[in-house]
Amino acid sequence: xxxxxxxxxxxxxxxxxxxxxxxxxxxxxxxxxxxxxxxxxxxxxxxxxxxxxxxxxxxxxxxxxxxxxxxxxxxxxxxxxxxxxxxxxxxxxxxxxxxxxxxxxxxxxxxxxxxxxxxxxxxxxxxxxxxxxxxxxxxxxxxxxxxxxxxxxx
Length: 154
Prior knowledge:
mainly alpha
């Protein structure tokens, strides 16, 4: 298994470029360093146009968690109050709603995917909204289900 850290990726790029400079084809290099040929092609093009510094390891870009312990505690309290207490029509906790509540109460913007990780770290979860027909009449649906299932059982 290939280690996934910036320095390892930089080393792979540097090896790939050296192999290309020694005359290997992009296809051969891709196989040797375990990447796609298009990846090697992109590295080569960037290297030729911008030079050696483009091979350097990038900075770690994962967004840090900005919530301190007090804010995390407040967020749990806010979420446990329910969505309706924050003006939503239903009490369904979606990541988009949680993003909005975090921004309105704490002034911090997060992407919905990151909110899932935050909720998980707090021992909470989010609820996916399933589409439901609003005009659905439960009486006929129940009758059809009972009739259909009893008919199939006999």
